[in-house]
Amino acid sequence: MLDINQLRNDLDAVVARLAARGFAFDAANFTTLEAERKTLQTATQDLQAKRNSVSKQIGMAKSKGEDVAPILAEVENLKGELAANESALSAVQNKLDDLLLGVPNLPHDSVPAGNDEKDNVEVRRWGTPRTFDFTAKDHVDIGTPLGLDFETGAKLSGARFTLLRGHIARLHRALAQFMLDVQTNEHGYSETYTPYIVNPEVLFGTGQLPKFADDMFRVERGGEDGHTQYLISTSEISLTNTVRDSILKAEELPIKLTAHSPCFRSEAGSYGRDVRGMIRQHQFDKVEMVQIANPEKSYAALEEMVGHAEAILQKLELPYRVVSLCTGDMGFSAAKTYDLEVWLPAQNTYREISSCSNCEAFQARRMQTRFKNEAGKNELVHTLNGSGLAVGRTLVAVLENYQNADGSVIVPAALRPYMGGLEKLV
RNA sequence: GGAGAGGUGGCAGAGUGGUCGAAUGUACCUGACUCGAAAUCAGGCGAUAGGGCAACUUAUCCGAGGGUUCGAAUCCCUCCCUCUCCGCCA
User: How far is the CA of A60 from the C1' of B13 (A)?
Assistant: First the structure.
């Protein structure tokens, strides 16, 4: 959520920055609602003050044993008038809230301008894509004989669900363990295990609700109705919301959390895309990094976090590039985002495998997460999140980059300790 | 699933219809005493929003949401959560 004071004081600039990310903000509607809100709020508060003072008078009169009937008569109309004002005010407040909750974050000044992924800017590359002396297969063709089982996944749960068997299943587990070990042992994140089912207000906090309900899986508890909860689409949601509704001490920052969790995404609206293989799944695992940061240090933290994600790819010796997303391609809550794209030889291209964002105070404002700054004032924290990394896509990258002509796959050296020393999948 | 007890400020904990955003203790901050510290004493110390250049001021908030009332932390309803005992269970 944006700072409403920024909208009040600097509306034109905010509208322009939102336009840069392709969002048309209804400034006229906002201005009208704000004017209504101001009038109604002042009037309502005046009436409330009057009611309070009269009620006090009644209390005092009664305690002295005086007759209160005259005072009661005086405020006969007050109640109805107040109720009307209060409900009008809350209606306007709700409209304003609805408006604001649907507005994406403002892009940081350093974010390249652009409309879509074609305008993203490559920041750097690491590693050299391997040259094959045979035709490289994609992960479906390599993986199926080794234990990637799309048919059974589909039989159990439908399209975009995959079953893993044997060494492939173990490789998947090894990747998650390896990533978690690197992030905790080398980068200072606290290992966290979180609920996968969360309450709706948690999703408001990180920005998935109210706008992106269609991307989520909903669950109902057996034997109960009316209490819809949601499967997390990333553990960013549960990790970031651990600090909702709290005032932190400055010295607690930064809080660095990591978790390995499944992620559930309905992928509504992506029907034609990436239907083959396990690039785009309804369920995939991810090791997530989250930082709760002092605003002054959040951009340094973002660069650092990108490095934490890169470290995984470097240790796995997978070529990748770092891309700065343009204004038009960033997610709803992000002020700035770097994507890591790993080399996939079969597609002859780089594909997203991590996304690291600084959300500044956007989520903190929704979650009411503050800290006591040096001046002793409560100030909103900045929140950052990044994948370190998406496990399923990393599995794809390993299979494709480490394949041999005979259909076997070399186990990257960094993963062998997690595979009981196994060097090759056959 | 059954029975019971609770949810109040950072923490502990009083308050059961009126001047209560809320006693008291503790933590924390400031000052005094001290070479310094501890102890002691004095003062301060919640959040959010509105109005005002500001000093300041108004409103709202006692798990959440409704209701009764001139007036609700306090009474009523619904829900959520925590604890104890029993049952069940990985």
Answer: 29
Query: Which nt is closest to the CA of A3, judged by C1'?
Result: B49
φ/ψ of A243, rounded to 5, equals -105, 15
Kind and range of the H or E run holding A192: strand A190-192
d(C-alpha A191, C-alpha A235), whole Å: 12
ipTM: 0.85
* Nearest residue to A286 via CA among A254, A309, A315: A309
Active site residue A355: yes
Q: Is-catalytic flag, A298? A: no
Q: Is A265 a known active-site residue?
A: yes
Domain boundaries, chain A: 26-101, 117-425
Nucleotide nearest to A199 (CA to C1'): B80
| Near-strand B residues (CB closer than 7 A) | A 4-5, 38, 41-42, 44-46, 48-49, 51-56, 58-60, 62-63, 72, 75, 78-79, 223-224, 227, 247, 368, 370, 378
DSSP summary character for residue A403: B
Known active-site residue A352: yes
Q: Tell me what pLDDT residue A373 has.
A: 84
A306 CA to B59 C1' distance (Å): 45
What is the tens place of the pLDDT at every residue in A126-158? 999 999 999 999 999 999 999 999 999 999 999
Neighbours of A298 (CB within 10 A): 25
| CATH class of the A26-101 domain in this structure | mainly alpha
The whole-number Å distance from A208's CA to B72's C1' is 37
Q: Can you give the distance from the CA of residue A236 to the C1' of nucleotide B85 in angstroms?
A: 39
pLDDT at A225: 62
A4 nearest nucleotide via C1' and CA: B49
Helix (H) or strand (E) holding A308: helix A298-315
- Residue from A379, A33, A378, A14 nearest A6 by CA: A14
At A295-348, the pLDDT tens digits run 999 999 999 999 999 999 999 999 999 999 999 999 999 999 999 999 999 999
Is A21 in the active site?
no
pLDDT digits (tens, 9 = 90+) for A77-95: 888 888 889 888 888 998 9
Domains A26-101 and A117-425 share a fold: no
Class of domain A117-425: alpha beta
Q: Which pLDDT value is given to residue A226? A: 66
Strands (E) in A313-375, as ranges, are 320-324, 336-344, 349-358, 369-372
